[in-house]
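Changelog note: in this version the structure field was regenerated for every chain. One regenerated record is shown below for reference.
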Amino acid sequence: MSFPFSSVAIVGKYMDENALQQMQSDLTRLAHHLLQQGLHVCVEENTAKFIGYDGFVVTDLDRIGEKSDLVIVMGGDGTMLSVGRALRESAAPLVGINRGRLGFLTDLQTDNMLVELDKILAGEYQIESRMLLQSSVMRGESSIYHTVALNDVVIKSAVRLIELEVHVDGKFVSRQRADGLILSTPTGTTAYALSAGGPIMHPDLDAISIVPISPHTLSYRPVSVPAESTIEVTVVSATDAQINFDGQGQYPLLPGDRIRIARAAQKIQLLHPQSYCYFDMLRNKLNWG
């Protein structure tokens, strides 16, 4: 599969003006370079305030996918997560330039980003689809909240153990007391789920990982289920329980609430350099020998 890249969008760490200020010179250099290639360039409205040139189109994040064949995200994994969710209805693939900490989702480095981007624009890339999770909170017979996550959906209490009951496709799995529970995509298995002792799953796998956070019963271990599964988690008892997605949004939960999690209909597409190797990335980011 190939993409005719004639229109390219740029999104910086749009929710953080201090971060945008620090990456201003790189953003400006990137925008100038793309314009010099004869491309139509669109810039997210908050990012555009920090690029010293007006030869591009400015738009809000929700409309960028309509105007672009490729979206370049400069920031960290958090920025990629929020942009990926926002553009999930778009066919435009994403490529990341790392200005964060670990950068599991952002392959390019600023010192060689223009060379690598020119290769991608010339068709030298790998394309990869990443699954999303759709979750809804049921209170009684009403659905009161919906979320979409690229990394994970997390159910936990801020102050003490939470008691949860888990069913998969209507079949009882367990009732557990723990600090919480993580429902993770393969993408999210290198995030919070990894810190909680969950497995690393290759992004090509169609699976959802169910990872307890510090369970009171130590024999309760992470389990992965097919991505076609529907997982239902019931809050049995909790104080200050909440659900959050990708660590970027949250909603309060009450005892009796049921959370249904399943694979979302949409996927996002990531572009990697031709030389990209998932295991090389893991070795470098996790300091494996």
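Spot check on this record: The helical segments are 17-22, 24-36, 45-48, 61-67, 77-86, 113-121, 192-195, 278-286. The chain has a mean pLDDT of 93.
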